[in-house]
Structures are given as structure tokens and as C-alpha cells.
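Protocol step 6 of 9: fold each sequence in the batch and record its C-alpha cells directly after the sequence line. For illustration, a two-sequence batch is reproduced in full.

Sequence one:
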Amino acid sequence: MPIEPGDYPSIEPNTALGQALVDFFEVLGPVYDEGDKGIFRVIVFGGCAVHIHTQARGSADVDAEVSSHGYATKSEIVALLEGDPYVFTDDEGNLQTLELDASFNTTLAPLHEDYEDRVVRLVAQSSIPNVEVYVASAIDVAISKLGRFGERDQQDIQALLSLPQVDVSEFERFAREAIDYYVGEKTRVFGNLSVALDDHQEC
């Protein structure tokens, strides 16, 4: 089902990285300014999504699912996004960069099939109304991190599960459903889920 902006909750990007994430996609202006190429929509995952939800850490890599609801081709979009890194000043006054991770693919990690129903609209002043930026929900970002489950991923999961709006029992239910149809090594990922839940109880 197509995403309709009015149907989803929104979040204000109240950090420099959050604003930069919206600005990053304005490079698509030449394609979408006139409105004849339809609408570009992106759903952000990874460290940038963790930052938007928790304000903890950041990431120079933009892990994102990109789609064009119109006449622009995905290759045309990616070519623009893979141009020069986007440089911005962070909240401490340091220069940072954002770059699209072109290797990112939502099939590489466990992900619930209904994740699009829970996305959050990233709201900011933008000069391109036809470019819409969404962030995967805190629960779905946490589920996606059960696959690799490195030390940073485990820290991210705990930060996300500690958010007041996150229902941990809902996270567990959606995670188990996602792992059931995951194409990777299910036993290992179920084990990762158990570790994450145990760690959360000990916090």
C-alpha cells in the first residue's frame, strides 16, 4: 500500500544530523522540482535512524530504501545521491559528512513485512515538496539489527528498546514473526533476540 504522508506520525529533526538527513536528499531537486517525475520517498534505517529516534550516536552512512512513485528511474536517483558527500556542521561545530550506502538492502537483515505501516515522517522545512523522507520505526530498526548483531548493534537495540513509546513485548512478537520468514540463519538470529531481551531486562 502506498505511503500517504497524512496517515503517519511525524518527528521533528531536532539535531544537526537530523536536519542534514533531510537536506541530503535535496540533491534530487533537478529531478523532482517540477513535479512531472512524481514523488520520491525514502525510508531510513541504520545508524541515522537510531540517531533520529534516540539522539544517540550518528552515522556517516545513509542506509535507506529508496523508491520513486512516478517516472524517475532508481538508477537516476542513486546516481544523484552517490555524488559528492554531503558536508554539514554537527551540534559540536565539527564538519561531518553523509554518504549513501548503495549496498544497503532491506533483504539482508530480518525485517517485519509490515514495517511500512509503522514508518515515521521526518518533518523539516524543505524546498522540494515532492521529496518525502521517512524513518523506520524504532521497533523495526531494532529488529533489523538482530541480523549482524555486533557490539554497536546491540547498543543500538538497547537504546531503542528503552524509548518510552516502545512496547518490548510488541518488539519480541514482531521480531519472532520477522525471523520466521527470514532467509538467513534463523537459529542464530533467534539466539540474538534472546540475548537482546535478556540484556534489556538487566538494564
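Sequence two, same batch, same settings:
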Amino acid sequence: MHFEILVEDQSGKKALDILVPEIIGDEHTFKVIAYRGIGRIPQKMNSGVDASKRILLDNLPRLLKGYGNSWQNFPSVVFVVCDLDDKCLKAFRQELFNILDACITKPETRFCVAIEEGEAWFLGDIPAVKAAYPRAKDAVLNAYVNDSICGTWERLADAIYNGGSTALSAKGWQAVGAEKSKWAEKISLHMDVTNNSSPSFAYFRQKLLELAGVTA
């Protein structure tokens, strides 16, 4: 099986490049493709978009149609991995399935939504956070409720970044993105993919295992 995994930013790619082979083993192939933001689902599925901007949801109708047309006889699956942010999960998933349903030839597809943000998957493995950042603040980490809507990246920043989320935010979004990529790489190297308290990570892992034919 080949897994094509679409993510909304570089931090997601850095994490999944490390974590996916830990889950599916070496009998399968995979490619993680990073976009430059999540964007929004077009109101008109056939509306033109600027593909060069590489915004995930804006391009998703075109991408899924392309996979469906080109992968008809190829054992493969598309994973769309993105953050929920402040959206309603049920409504958002329905919007994603509407895109898939609009494809004449549907590619095998799974939608995996990190709740609230990708950092929830790191906070689901506090020992990994502590291994990567030994001086992380225990009080902040232990107060976190898995997959809660609480400002997840800010919570992680408050635990591990000097000055917390306030100091990091003051440097601007480019600095925030760069720091998130560092967290993704450092923490993922220590994560135990079989033991994570984030329900949305567990869902992602289970879907990978099912398609890889691996017994959990």
C-alpha cells in the first residue's frame, strides 16, 4: 500500500515523516506533502484556485479528483491531516466528505482531524515532551486535557518556550511557525506511537494500521 499524506504545514510534515514509518512498518511506502496553510473549502467545487499558493483546503477538490483519475489501478490511499481549530468537527468532516463525493472516481481517502491543533498529538505523549524538553513545566503539561479546545499550541509553548506563548507570539507568525517545526521534530523522535492519550492521534494511527493490514 502507498500512503499519500497531505498536511497543512511543515511542522506536520516533520512529525509524520518520523511517526508514520513507526506505525506502518517498512513494507509500505508513504509520502508526506506539506502545504502552506489550511485555507478553506471552496463554496463551488469547480471554482478556479491558484494552485501555486499551495493552500490545502482550497486545492483539495482538485487534488482528490486528480488522485481518483490517476490511481484507479494502484493500491494507494490519500490521508488528509489537518487541524480542527475552532470549527465544528461534525460539520467540518461532512464538508470534507462532500468534496470526496463530488469526485466521479473517488480515491481511497481518510480524513484525520487533529483536535484542536497538531500540538495535541505531542501533548498526548507527555513523556516524549519531557524527553525532548527536560525543563518543560509539569504544572502546565499536567493541566492539559487531551484534545480539548484550549489554545493547544499556546499551551505547549507555555510549557516549553522561554517566556511562553506570549513571548513567542510577540515575534510574529513566522517565528511561531519556525518554532512549531522545531517542536515537531524534537518531540516526535521520542514519541511512543502505541501509547498516546490524544483520541485524534489514536484515530489516525488506527486508520493507518487498518489499511496497512497491521494488527494493533
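Proceed to step 7 once all outputs are recorded. Observation for sequence two: Strands lie at 2-7, 29-34, 76-83, 109-114.
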